[in-house]
Amino acid sequence: MADKYLNLREWKAVSKDSAVKGDALSKALAAFAKAEDGAPQAACAALDEVRKQADLVAKAAKDDKRLSGWLADLDKSIAQRRRELTRAAEQAAAGDADADADADADDAAAAALFDPKRLLGQLNLLRRDPERRANFAFVDASDTRAATLTLSSKMAARKLFSRLQDATGTRAGAFGATWLQEDTLVLQVDKPLSGLLKKMRGPMRACGFRVPRIVLWGPEGNVLEESGEAQEGQTAAAAEAVAAAAPDGRAPEQPRAGFEQRLRALTAPLQAALGDGHPAAAKLREVLAFARDKAQTGQFGPALQALDVLQKLLAGPADAAAAAASAARAAAAPADYARCHQAWSAARGKAADEIKRLRDTILAEYQNTPLQAQVATRVGLLDELLEQFDDDLAATLQQAGIAADDSERARLHGVAADSIRRLLLRLDQDPVLRRLKDNPFAPIDPRAMLAATLQALARQLA
């Protein structure tokens, strides 16, 4: 239980004679008292709100020494209680994993197949770990029984489906693999079923699990269907958002050979189009990067579709006059390359400082705990984030500023512009940077800062 500082009655007593308004903090403390008896994750969220409101009160009460001292003690209690809740959440996750293994080892007993709490635990494990994969089996509803969904990380999908069929006496259904990427549940089916996405909602609602979007994939990673909650025309975007989490090695070598053959055939016209200043050069590079990324993860369905788009873009008319005019403007009024170099170097330096602050905060949170070594290993990966955003842009801008002749400066100008477009694309696609602003330790947003600087540089080099 929380100590006296995390107590609504104590807060009302200490703030009774103060002129500072503390109604919001009172509400936050009351909400935390209710949440503390539930799941650790919910209690952590409520505790974060207490800290937020306490910080606001502390700013208003900085001249009140008595109240400021009490709020300082409250902050210490919040930090201690959050560490306790974090450990409790980790133990609960480990317990869920153990329960999962026990249930699978018990030959997927009928009770486990229909247990909504077990289903909720499995789905929550997917939500907590984007790298986790599970097999699923689903049987359709009958006149006497609702539709049933079950997940397992141990049993093969086909065997799980067979167990479910035997237990329900229903043959209609589907099975395959599933994982959750951000707010999208991906279902890759080995055995499809008409209307599966809508039918899946019933069992998930029954166990208390909510997910805004469900995407249905075919065996080769092609998008078959998307849930009705998505806006019209977003199917391709949703597929791109979740494809990065797809497991490797699903596609055989034959699709890989076909992809590489088509890519080689497009290489010459693509290079010619980019060299001639194709008006859709940025889009060509974006589509090409997407195709290569999907091929590297074995997703040759989306990769080949991207090559189709690339071929259509190349077949479109190239506005050579517009490209020539753009080049002439760049030559007539070259950018301030020194200032651009300074701005990009400063932005990367600030981003590195923010990431270091986050890393140090996380390490301090887990210091002298059993998880310290494991957390230190994972946090070390944060240092590698900015390496992919170097791309020699700073050196190119510096060389352009000291170029001896106009032709060399124009060439470096184009190289820098291409680098900026490429880096903006990477920023848009990077899943780790996108999540840093919502992390519970020290919310930071280096992605927004880097993007703003790159967009400003793009305007300078347009």
Describe this structure in words.
It is a single chain. This protein is α+β, with helices and mostly antiparallel strands. Helices cover 63% and strands 8% of the residues. The chain has 19 helices and six strands. It has helices at residues 8-15, 23-35, 40-60, 65-105, 110-113, 116-128, 157-168, 196-207, 235-243, 253-275, 281-296, 300-315, 320-332, 337-365, 372-379, 393-401, 406-429, 431-435, 446-460; strands at residues 134-139, 148-152, 173-181, 184-191, 213-217, 223-226. The protein has a six-stranded mixed beta sheet, with helices on both faces. Helix 8 (196-207) links the parallel strand 4 (184-191) and strand 5. Helix 6 packs across helix 8 and helix 14 runs antiparallel to helix 16.
Feature tags:
alpha+beta, flat, 6 strands, 6-stranded mixed beta sheet, 8% strand, 462 residues
Topology:
Blueprint: H1 8-15, H2 23-35, H3 40-60, H4 65-105, H5 110-113, H6 116-128, E1 134-139, E2 148-152, H7 157-168, E3 173-181, E4 184-191, H8 196-207, E5 213-217, E6 223-226, H9 235-243, H10 253-275, H11 281-296, H12 300-315, H13 320-332, H14 337-365, H15 372-379, H16 393-401, H17 406-429, H18 431-435, H19 446-460
Parallel strand pairs: 4-5
Antiparallel strand pairs: 1-2, 1-3, 3-4, 5-6
Helix pairs in contact: 2-3, 3-4, 4-6, 6-8, 10-12, 11-12, 14-16, 14-19, 16-17, 17-19
